[in-house]
Amino acid sequence: MNKSSQNKSITIPIVILCIKAIMVAGMMCIVEKVGTPVVVARREIPAHTIIDKSMVAQTYMMTDIYHDGARNLASVVGHVATCDIPRQAQLRTVDFQ
CB of 27 within 8 A of CB of 56? Predict the structure, then answer.
């Protein structure tokens, strides 16, 4: 076997490995966006506070989702927290009015 064919036999598996790595990275991005949309607190929100957009974020979860949880920011922003809401907690309909 000459040097050129040795290089080709090494190069092809490396190229295939790189392509697979790129595909896996792309799939991971897609998986992050799959799930149920939920609204979570970006920081602790004290009771009786008017919730503004900077206090909450929409994310996606696969498990441990409250059936009465807020699903979009519009349903939460402008409402008043009825209790203390911990940082990263899902907002539920009982948490605001």
Answer: no
Query: Considering only CA atoms, which of 4, 5, 72, 20 is closest in space to residue 91?
Result: 72
Residues 34/62, Cβ–Cβ less than 8 Å:
yes
Residue 67 in 3-state DSSP? coil
Third-level CATH fold of 36-95: Type Iii Antifreeze Protein Isoform Hplc 12 (3.90.1210)
Q: What is the pLDDT along the chain (97 residues), one digit of tens a residue?
A: 555 556 567 777 888 888 887 877 766 655 556 789 999 999 999 999 999 999 999 999 888 889 999 999 999 999 999 999 999 999 999 999 9
